[in-house]
Write a structure and sequence with these properties.
By secondary structure, the chain is an alpha+beta fold. The chain is about 45% helix and about 25% strand. Strands 6-8-12-11-10-13 form a six-stranded antiparallel β-barrel. A six-stranded mixed β-sheet has the order 21-22-23-24-26-25, with helices on both faces. Strands 14-15-20-19 form a four-stranded antiparallel β-sheet. The N and C termini lie far apart (about 85 Å).
């Protein structure tokens, strides 16, 4: 039982909660174990089909199943958890809930390998999860292909990394044992994770099997240090201790007792973008002040605000707060730039920015005004994101669910589940469909209703977001909406308000995750204008109408390719002519023809062709040719078949020569190649060849 009684403000300060609770931990599994009168959750019919599947796949007897019950339990439990997580859009990753998904898949995979699985197997166990639970949890059935695909990909990826990590850990364990130690230090455990991809949980499991332990606090300290170095530093001391939160809580209580605020700051980002309201409080550097001066960083509290607070992928609003003089003809005496709105504690919203001019004071009448143009750009991109989501699913499949987004004024970014790059044809199709949706001028309707009602009507919700009992929904479409999502963001009233939609990028952001970026409205128009200008300028320079530009460019590329081929042919012929003269430089080394020469202005392919030509002209001989190509050295060595029987080896010769030019290489006894970094020593390197040949013959 967990008794929920206090809010911890700091290490020593506990604040009693207004409502106290007891968490019994009586979840579904435990309830079923009681109802079915068994002594373990894993002996209920919630788990037995999964355990049966594992047993059937392994071909184990009942006795073997009992003897290996711990691995069986881990596989069944983790396969079920992973299936539900993936169905909810949580794919394997390196942070947060994504890391949890990766960790439980990898832990199950490791226990499977201990039982004897040497190929991916979790997808088959997950198929049993879908079959047994799918009637109650239809999202499992709906996303079954994504579950199968993701599990298999992660198992394959883990098999490639765990062997290397576990092998390194085995060496570390041997060292611990030799030193008589029993705990792996945290820094080393973190190196296993960061370098070899071995999760802490897997490291801990392996160590526990050897009656050893890992310094988990040390691991987490190493991880925090890594985050700090990489720019994701830890919380400040005040934040970590809760002092900052308590300061804002006290401010809220003060304002309520003073009558400057009611129960909370009224938050309405969906109404007018301008409101008139007195300044309830001013904070400079986190401290309440009566007045602020020009240039001060300031936080302003007002009784209500139209500024949107960043959440759900949508960035927050910016704008200004101006003094409202008593005389309408008088100019404002001060102005504050608003950079962000944030909810510091429940009920208290502050507008953070800086004093641009004048000296604002508590109690001053003021106008708070959201930057309208920026807000409208954001609204266009947010509604376009909903259209994009619907069309991605229509074109790529229903598995292409949202996995993250950014809605900013200058662009939108959308992450979704898909295990392959989106082709140019698919992107073009999606863009056409989104623009058709925009031109159709569908109504965009917002509604506030119970979460259960919205979901029963088919509204999509994101696993990564938290929703209350009452939710805001966005429907796009008239009679039968083709987009229906839970969303707290701001949107246009009809899709034609979005303007043009243009993709600007598509990329991978992780296993099974793709990202597209796009612009709409003013940003899209600017991009279209830039590209049309570039098109017209290029067409004018090539002296063809714009509509004939593609054909002209294709013809020019064909001509350039043909010219390059002719150039290469002529260079090869010239090189062969020069090579005839180079053959005159061949030396006699103990009765063997040896040619070591620098060839100017040739490609690596031509260098190999000249080596072949040497073999044709000199049936019994040794040639080592070198060239400086693009600031690097290319070398080719050839030894005729008969000379290999006398101990000459092109592979050994080329390696010795390549060392001088800072390179390496290899090949067969009759033909070898190498590269190097220092063209200035090429002649010096080739000068070694006669000596290397003589030395080999003396052995």
């Amino acid at each position: 039982l967990v008794f929920i009684q206090y809010n911890r403000l700091s290490a020593a300060d506990l604040e009693p909660l207004p409502n106290k609770h007891v968490d019994t931990g009586m979840g579904l599994d435990r309830v079923v174990s009681v109802l079915q009168n068994v002594d373990s959750n894993y002996k209920t019919d919630l788990f037995s089909p999964l355990l049966d599947t594992v047993q059937k796949m392994l071909g184990h007897t009942d006795a073997e199943r009992v003897a290996n019950f711990t691995p069986y339990r881990v596989i069944a439990d983790h396969a079920r958890a992973a299936a539900f997580l993936i169905a909810d859009g949580v794919v394997p990753g390196n942070t947060g809930r994504n890391y949890v998904t990766r960790m439980i898949i990898r832990r199950a995979a490791r226990f499977g390998r201990k039982l004897g699985f040497d190929e991916p197997f979790l997808a088959e166990v997950a198929a049993t999860v879908v079959r047994e639970y799918g009637h109650a949890y239809p999202e499992l059935v709906k996303n079954s292909k994504a579950i199968t695909r993701t599990l298999t990909q992660e198992e394959v990826r883990f098999q490639r990394t765990v062997d290397l990590g576990a092998e390194h850990l085995d060496r570390l364990i041997a060292g611990l044992t030799a030193r008589g130690e029993h705990t792996l230090d945290g820094d080393t455990a973190f190196e296993l994770y960061s370098t070899y991809g071995l999760p802490l949980e897997i490291t801990r499991d392996i160590l526990q099997e050897r009656n050893l332990a890992v310094d988990e606090p040390g691991f987490r300290a190493a991880m925090e240090a890594h985050k700090t170095v990489s720019g994701a530093g830890p919380l400040s001391a005040a934040e970590a201790s809760g002092e900052g939160v308590e300061r804002y809580r006290q401010l809220l209580a003060e304002l309520q007792s003073e009558g400057a605020l009611g129960l909370e700051v009224e938050y309405d980002p969906y109404g007018p973008l301008t409101i008139e309201e007195p300044v309830a409080a001013l904070l400079v550097n986190g401290r309440r002040v009566q007045t602020a001066a020009t240039g001060d960083p300031v936080e302003v509290v007002m009784g209500r605000t139209p500024f949107y607070i960043e959440m759900g992928g949508q960035v927050g609003d910016t704008g200004v707060i101006r003094h409202l003089p008593g005389d309408a003809a008088a100019p404002p005496q001060w102005e504050v730039r608003v950079d962000a709105a944030s909810r510091r504690v429940a009920g208290l919203i502050v507008l953070a920015g800086a004093v641009v001019r004048g000296s604002p004071a508590e109690g001053d009448r003021a106008i708070a005004e959201v930057d309208e143009q920026r807000r409208r750009d954001i609204m266009r991109n947010h509604t376009a994101t909903h259209l994009l989501h619907a069309e991605l699913r229509a074109v790529l499949g229903e598995h292409a669910n949202q996995a993250g987004s950014l809605v900013a004024p200058d662009r939108l970014r959308f992450d979704f589940r898909h295990d392959a790059a989106v082709s140019p044809d698919e992107l073009a199709d999606i863009a056409r469909r989104v623009n058709a949706d925009i031109l159709a001028n569908h109504p965009v309707r917002t509604d506030v209703q119970s979460q259960s009602k919205a979901k029963s009507e088919g509204a999509m919700a994101l696993f990564t977001e938290k929703y209350g009992d009452v939710v805001r929904t966005i429907k796009i479409g008239a009679d039968k909406p083709f987009s229906y999502e839970l969303c707290g963001g701001t949107h246009v009233r009809q899709t034609a308000d979005i303007g043009p939609f243009v993709f600007i990028g598509e990329s991978s952001v992780g296993a099974g995750l793709r990202r597209v970026e796009a612009v709409t409205g003013r940003g899209a128009l600017e991009l279209i204008e830039q590209r049309l200008t570039l098109l017209d300028t290029t067409a004018a320079r090539l002296r063809v109408p714009a509509e004939q530009l593609a054909g002209k460019v294709a013809a020019m590329l064909d001509e350039a390719q043909a010219a390059q081929k002719e150039k290469d042919r002529l260079q090869r012929e010239l090189a062969q002519i020069k090579f005839e003269a180079t053959l005159m430089q061949a030396q006699d080394v103990k009765g063997i023809v040896v040619l070591a020469a620098v060839i100017e202005d040739v490609s690596a392919d031509t260098l190999r062709e000249l080596t072949d030509r040497f073999r044709q002209r000199v049936p019994s001989g040794v040639a080592v040719l070198g060239a400086a190509i693009g600031g690097r050295v290319s070398l080719v060595a050839s030894v005729s078949d008969d000379l290999t029987q006398r101990g000459l080896d092109a592979n050994k010769i080329i390696k010795a020569v390549a060392k001088t030019v800072g390179g390496s290489g290899g090949g067969k006894a009759i033909l070898a190649q190498a590269g190097g970094k220092d063209p200035s020593r090429l002649a010096e390197a080739l000068a070694q060849v006669p000596g290397l040949v003589a030395e080999a013959l003396e052995r």
